[in-house]
Design brief:
Layout: H1 17-30, H2 43-61, E1 64-68, E2 77-81, H3 92-102, H4 107-112
Antiparallel strand pairs: 1-2
């Protein structure tokens, strides 16, 4: 995944809140709003960020990637199952788009804890 080639300043220990802060701040400099998060110009970076955010939760909390089925009008989606939190599945795509909308630089670290 070599995300460190895309995002300057990532910590040497990549699976923690500091990584999420650095990555989110970088994303905010590259993407000007939620609407353009997955557009052609930003698509490669967006998917790499989705993988980084999700894998950070997986590695830090011994989680696993899961597919959540479609429910009602909600489509199927990718999430992370955390062994210590039942019925709470961080969804990296949603975390990315929320961060691009809210633009605080702390969204991912806040969910991470």
């Amino acid at each position: 995944m070599m995300i460190d080639e895309d995002i300057p300043g990532l910590p040497r220990r990549p699976w923690g809140a500091d990584t999420l802060r650095v990555a989110e701040e970088y994303a905010l400099t590259q993407v000007s709003g939620k609407e353009e998060t997955f557009d052609g110009e930003h698509q490669r970076l967006a998917w790499r960020l989705v993988r980084l955010v999700g894998q950070t939760f997986v590695e830090a909390f011994d989680g696993t990637w899961v597919n959540l089925p479609a429910e009602g009008s909600s489509p199927a989606r990718v999430a992370v199952d955390l062994p210590f939190r039942k019925m709470f599945y961080p969804e990296p795509i949603t975390l990315l788009t929320a961060a691009m909308k809210r633009r605080t630089g702390e969204e991912w670290a806040l969910v991470f804890g």
